[in-house]
Amino acid sequence: MSPATTRPTDSEDAAAAARAFLADFRSMSTFGATTGGGVDRQAGTAADGQTRNWFRGLVEGHGFEVRYDAVGNQFALLEIAPGAPYVAMGSHLDSQPLGGRFDGAYGVLAAAHAAIRLHDTPATAPAPVFNIAVINWFNEEGCRFKPSLMGSAVFTGKLPVEQVLATTDPHGTTVREALASIGTVGDFTLDVAAYLEIHIEQGRSLEDHGLTIGLVESTWGANKYEFVVHGEQAHTGATVIADRHDALLGASLLVAAARDIADEFSTDEHAVITSCGEFTVFPNSPVVVASRVDLLVDLRSTDAEVLATADAELHRRIAVIEERAAVSVERGAEHIWASKAYDSSGLELATASAKKLGLAHGTVRTLAGHDSTNMKDIVPTIMLFVPSVEGISHNEKELTSDEDMLAGVDLLTDLLGRVVGGEFVASNQNRN
Questions:
Q1: pTM higher than 0.90
Q2: What sign does the CA torsion over 105, 410, 17, 136 have?
Q3: All residues at 6 or more sequence positions from 60 whose CB lies less than 8 Å from its CB, including other chains
Q4: Fewest C-beta in 10 Å: which of 2, 87, 102, 385?
């Protein structure tokens, strides 16, 4: 056989697929790139729109059809079992301000490449009984528009469409207007049979234990609250302390109380994590006592009872803070998800794929929220992690090695073949 007609070996095919993924990842990372090596692609911005259009071009070049729903969720569809429901995979392409290149975006691209590989080499997997959808969820991060996990919350019926479309960013732009500006809104709906998601860990447990793959067994519970502390504007020099109603003092005491609660309620068995991720001071002048502070406080824990007790303590302390700072604290919107296990049969199936590929793996829990947090409440769901170097995330220095990214794509490809072939859904039906 002449060199011109020699077929590439399996190892050559695998090497070419790996190179293709890494090249696409580098290309994707140029959209919204920051000088510090990260990205800034907040939901509905021009950079987000550019990344969505790039992704559309990528998948359409491999035979996918791209559609959008009413809140801008982007669906790349591959019909391989006509008339059947879809096995969905995905994550998000939007980022935090000055965020990392890997958070969310890796999972979307890994899903697309897993689907492409499976489609290009169908003989390596069972005959498909489901179609494939790769989803780029809108506004997973929740930094420009609150709450986070917005697109998947609408998809799963947890948030009404019209409420989301009317939500505004700090400058008064609505979600409806932002989506119209980037041209990624439609009326598509999707029949989903199962959902898979792969993500960087955003923690260090995999790295600390020398593991390549994390099989996510459950989520932490999380309670997120928007608070408004109301005070009274005054002169910082001329107004004596006794006459002040300092909203900034009240807000600071609330942040400190949250940290104290984390220290007080964490145990060796169940940790409590609290934080304030957003803080807006009015009028924010160096010579004016603040009249108002808007802030967001969240509490997370592995245990529902511990979280409930810590939550009750936070709200008990609000009355103490109001009296000490002579302010009032208004509780606004909230975003809550419970600690909940992922499907055990999904863990078993992912374990089988990891063993087949010889990948070091173990079970983990996710501290962060992901779109799978919503999806697992409506369909059988599998969540996977690859390591984050030093656990750094939501930071331009966020990093996952090429080797770990490629191992994740390999695992997702094998797992997708099993799920599209009916193994995961069938096991759930048998248990039910």
A1: no
A2: negative
A3: 66
A4: 2
